Amino acid sequence: MKRIFKITFMVVALTMFFASCVKDLDTQPINPNDMNSANVYKTFTNYKQVLAKCYAGLSMSGQQGPSGMPDIKGIDEGFGEYMRGYWYHQELTTDEAVIGWNDQTVKNFHGQNWGSSDVFIAAMYYRIFYQVCLCNEFIRESTDAKLAERGISGANATEVAQYRNEARFLRALSYSHAMDLFGNVPFVTENDPVGKFFPQQITRANLFKYVEGELLAIEPLMTTVKGVEYGRAGQAAVQTLLAKIYLNAEVYAGTAKNTECVTYCNKVINDGYQLDADYKTLFMADNNTTKEGIFMITFDGSKSQTWGGTTFIIHAAVGGSMVPGDYGIAGGWGGTRTTSALVGKFGSGDMPWSSPKAPKNAATYPVLYCPGSYQSPNAWDPTNTKTVIGSTGSNSKYEGYLNLPAGAQFKFTAGQNWNVNWGGAAGVLSHGGANLSVVDAGYYKINVDTAALTYSVVATTWGLIGSATAGAWATDTPMTYDATNDVWTVVADLTAGEVKFRANAGWDINYGGAGGILSNGGANIAIPSAGTYTITMKLGTPDYTYTIVKSAFDHRAMFYTTGQSLEINDIAIFTDGYAVTKFTNMKSDGTPGSNSTYPDTDFPMMRLADVYLMYAEAVLRGGGGGDRATALSYVNLVRTRAYQDPAGNITDGQLDLAFILNERARELYWEGYRRTDLIRFGSFSTGTYVWPWKGGSKEGQAVDACITSSPSLHLMLRPIRTCIKTPNINLLKPIYYEKTININTGHWFVQHDLL
């Protein structure tokens, strides 16, 4: 019996894992008493169970749910989960995210002043190689020869061969992360001996060649898009990873491979994936229905519970005055926000804005009923609750608006019957008096005083006026009455300024007010930025309400601003910096996920929009096999979806590399791309681009290089941890590593003390 296999599966072969690792890989547990390789691998059905662990290594932190049996020791299990660690490295070190917690060295990430003893860097390092270990073992045990020895043949052997290809992809994915984060690393494959030994260190350039070779070898063997089971990798995932490493090839290996990037982007684009119609649904609890996701890391609140992954991303982003239930969770952790540098990439004109939604239920006010000939479907019906006017002061004075046809007759009743009713003439009411009437069709303002026995009926047309309108405070912008919805509307181009609503182009009847509720003579309504707006005013029965919604804006700007300051004075204070609402545990139908603690939201590690942007960048960098016109069309597909309108589209003259870097931030923020992007553009640690608190300064500053031969290399590559006592003589010792590390395959990776 192999020691590595036994110790690995003391962890792997537990019921909790096999019941929960990924939604579409649910299988029955391997018998925990059968712990040797011969017993586990002799049965065909067990191979999918073991493959499930390889996938779950990206999303789960241990073997029994959120905590209790961690894969790696020495760090809180939630902090040690793969996707959470990767997110820390790719986001907290950039302009896209800060975190307010004081957990060990986590704040050092945004200040870019980490060191080789950083526990979070060590956890990511061990996570990567734990994942490599899992995949190596599966690949080692699923060769054609071993399957034949175990009597697994025919269709079953073919299926296991596909599992093996997927394990090779997962290993290549983790090695690509090692290459990106750490550079020169220890190198182990299924061909190395099992047990304790000192592996050779591979250079970053040679690791690039290895990852490239693995992906090229398995690409034609992988399942095509139509046959891919959700949550598993198919051919497009391999092609996307190839495109990604080719785009970064000059960083990794010193030679640009932009033509190769274009080639593999074209393959993915032609695979049949589609942009989802609504950007926000990509990050909701039912995003497993996506047509855009190429490789999704799956989470399930009922079956796969973890304190990492989207549990962390969603909970940590909720705090301050935010209502956790609005995001499908029971409580927020008040940790992560973003910087003004990211917010500023959207521009004030691209920021979403709408008036508050606060219409008060008119039933809370006393009402008079207004039966008459105009009512539908039944005329003279005092029980009709849609044709009423209200008393906002709960006294004898009532007001409201009625849409009346020419010659309409009506009366007022105190209740839904005729026991107490009023009619009259010439502005005077009397009990049981004559029917009231209007000559012309129109939208009428009705006022009644049942104590003074008076009434008024005034025809109105409505317009928008103010400094934000084309006519300023002199000329109204006319509004149109929508009889079906009983609202007045207008679509108007506004500038930053103020507006009010007024009737009949005069000031006798004018409405303003805050909080979405109007009052006669109320305060001017602020319009924060220029744009095209859809303005709606609902009168009828008080309260009178309005909405003002920017029609064409970048819907990707998903920030919570109430009670939050744009600038960060103190990273520890959650209300310093805008909160990000991109990821949520709410479904697209408005209902929450299955569990208010552990979200159902999957993490999109690869999706089509990224491929479109990679294509455009590679073309701009001189890659062959593509062209600017196609690049522009792909960028504008992304932006049309973002704006829900072609208004956000750009011209060829606007398409350059600086635009691409900013567009990638707008499209992909908080998805684990930013650090790699900034390094590729030479903007990560240098002074060419600074953001708040970069380098530990509120205003941001360049981070000094620690070695003259390769400026800021120590900041672009993570240092290998110093805590390992036994040196590995086979490891090179680059000057940016303070100390080297030895790698023991097998059980060393299953549970290793980081401290």
- Mean pLDDT across the residues is 87
| Rg value | 32 Å
Q: Tell the overall outline.
A: elongated
The largest sheet is:
10 strands, antiparallel
Q: Roughly how many Å apart are the termini?
A: 30 Å
Poorly predicted sequence stretches spanning 5 or more consecutive residues: 1-31, 357-363, 705-714, 722-729, 731-755
Number of strands: 28
Strand-residue proportion: 15-25%
Output the number of helix runs.
21
Q: What can you tell me about this protein's structure?
A:
29% of the residues lie in helices and 16% in strands. The chain is elongated and about 105 Å long. Mean pLDDT is 87; it is low at 1-31, 357-363, 705-714, 722-729 and 731-755. Strands 16, 17, 18, 19, 20, 21, 22, 23, 24 and 25 form a ten-stranded antiparallel beta sheet that branches. Strands 8-14-15 form a three-stranded antiparallel beta sheet, with no helix packed on it. It is α+β, with helices and mostly antiparallel strands and 755 residues long. A hairpin with a 4-residue loop joins strand 21 (510-512) and strand 22 (517-520). The protein has 21 helices and 28 strands. Helix 11 (235-247) runs parallel beside helix 16.
